[in-house]
């Protein structure tokens, strides 16, 4: 059988921090996986969840498999685990290299999931449909119709040539294989410019995680026109969270919040509610416990 077919979109090495600390020593380490609505809790080994077959594999026409994406992500995961163990878990400051590696891991966590893949595919669905319709029209168009259609050259409308049909189709059909590394390369230095804090808690449940662990959230978005409510790095109020472990959570912001910061259980519950609502199908807890607050919708602000 081909190697490396089982590819995780949430790394197993990342999820190991959520293994139940109360599990019997004779058991294979496990965490608690819940359906998004809080039902069906079951214990699972981290290696057995959040994966797809050949999710990042690039397939060539000759049938060969290119694993450059899978291997690159694995190297980044190894760097993250080392930083989490040697520095973050011990409350030590990160050096510049570790800081940018943590930002790269965060960028990857945001871009490598099935939900991100479908978002990219949706963006290219309309351009691909238009190009397909144009190709069908060209099959029956007269010479005069073609002449009129090309009277305005695309090069006169843009300084750079657009994407070819094959490029657009590949972005639609294979979003991660085509765009993932570019997404990480562009986003990482932008995250590096944000203030970085590590929120810490001694709560018995702690921070949870999910099949969509990196959350971009903007508490000021309800005040904006609906067209501008999506969270974006351009907004001063942007908040990006990524649970590091049940006791620590990365918090990127533009409000000067930096360093290791002990937070109250009420804030932990708020961030867990945010993450639970943004999960796609499942969330993860280190114990077979949940809180009703995670399932309670937030009230709409009065100045929305």
Low-confidence stretches: none
The main pleated sheet reads as: 5 strands, mixed
Write down the overall mean pLDDT. 92
Please identify the structural class as seen in this structure: alpha+beta
By DSSP (H or I, 4+ residues per run), the number of helices equals 8
Domain module tally: 1
List the helices and strands in order: EHEEEEEHHHHHHEEEEEEHE
Strands of the widest sheet, in order across it, are 9-10-11-7-12
Q: What level of helicity do the residues show?
A: 25-40%
Gyration radius (Cα, Å) is 22 Å
Q: What is the molecular shape?
A: globular
**What assembly state would you assign to the polypeptide chains in this entry?**
single chain
- Topology, number of strands: 13
Q: Report strand %.
A: 15-25%
Distance between the termini: 55 Å
Blueprint (SSEs and pairs):
Elements: E1 6-8, H1 12-15, E2 31-35, E3 42-44, E4 51-53, E5 58-59, E6 65-66, H2 68-86, H3 96-111, H4 114-140, H5 143-149, H6 165-173, H7 175-192, E7 195-200, E8 209-210, E9 215-217, E10 239-245, E11 248-253, E12 259-262, H8 265-278, E13 282-285
Helix pairs in contact: 2-3, 3-7, 4-6, 6-7
Overall description:
With 304 residues, the protein is of the alpha+beta class. It has one domain. It contains eight helices and 13 strands. It has helices spanning 12-15, 68-86, 96-111, 114-140, 143-149, 165-173, 175-192, 265-278, and strands at residues 6-8, 31-35, 42-44, 51-53, 58-59, 65-66, 195-200, 209-210, 215-217, 239-245, 248-253, 259-262, 282-285. Strands 9-10-11-7-12 form a five-stranded mixed beta sheet, with helices on both faces. A four-stranded antiparallel beta sheet has the order 3-2-13-8, covered by helices on one side. Strand 10 and strand 11 (248-253) form a beta hairpin. Helix 2 (68-86) packs across helix 3, helix 4 (114-140) packs antiparallel against helix 6 (165-173) and helix 6 (165-173) crosses helix 7 (175-192). The longest helix has 27 residues, at 114-140. The termini are far apart. The model has no long low-confidence stretch (mean pLDDT 92).
